[in-house]
Amino acid sequence: MFIFNEKSKKELSSCHKDLQMIFNEVIKVINISVLEGYRTLETQRKYFKEGKSRCDGVNNKSLHQSNPSMAVDVSPYPIDFSEKEKAKARFYFLAGIVFDTANRLLRENKITHRIVWGGDWNSNIKFDDQSFDDLPHFELKSI
Ligand SMILES: [Zn+2]
């Protein structure tokens, strides 16, 4: 079992309670870091300009801008953002655990949303039909 560091705790606490419940379960089986939950307009615009997000923050808002945040960015720990195939594979491995955890919590009526992952926006389990990969990104979707 692993525990969140202070930065991860702070970021996760800015998220919707469903995200908190999911990732407090996920860290029991895989070591992870919560990179970012709630995001200000200023930060969103910065990411848009840098090409890190497709949302400009005004006309197209990110779910990170909700308060509490309806989106969270999470990485396996230790963090490796290199383009190496096996570094990326760690995010796919994590996403499977997140889906399994979220589906279980949903069946147990402990959460009220489904999860959408930035590595498979349309949730069809095909990863080659994506125009934009955001592998650390998970967001809540109403059922
Ligand atoms: Zn995100």
Any ligands, ions or cofactors bound here, and which?
Answer: zinc ion
Beta-strand percent range: 15-25%
Question: What name does CATH use for the topology?
Answer: Muramoyl-pentapeptide Carboxypeptidase, domain 2
**Strand segment tally:** 4
How many separate structural domains? Answer: 1
- CATH architecture descriptor text: 2-Layer Sandwich
Number of helices: 4
Pattern of helices and strands: HHEHEHEE
Tell me the radius of gyration.
Answer: 14 Å
- The CATH class, by name, is Alpha Beta
Percent range of helical residues: 25-40%
Q: What is the molecular shape? A: globular
For the biggest sheet, the summary is:
4 strands, antiparallel
Arithmetic mean of pLDDT: 97
Structural class: alpha+beta
Output the strand order for the largest sheet: 1-2-4-3
Taking pLDDT < 50 over at least 5 consecutive residues as the criterion, the unreliable ranges are: none
Distance between the termini: 31 Å
How would you explain this protein's 3D organization?
The protein has 4 helices and 4 strands. It is α+β, with helices and mostly antiparallel strands and 143 residues long. The chain has a single domain (6-142), classed as Muramoyl-pentapeptide Carboxypeptidase, domain 2 (2-Layer Sandwich). It has a 4-stranded antiparallel β-sheet. α2 packs across α4. The structure holds zinc ion. Zinc ion binds next to β2. The site of zinc ion (ZN) has 5 residues, from β2.
Topology record:
Blueprint: H1 6-13, H2 17-26, E1 32-36, H3 41-49, E2 71-76, H4 85-107, E3 113-117, E4 137-142
Antiparallel strand pairs: 1-2, 2-4, 3-4
Helix pairs in contact: 2-4
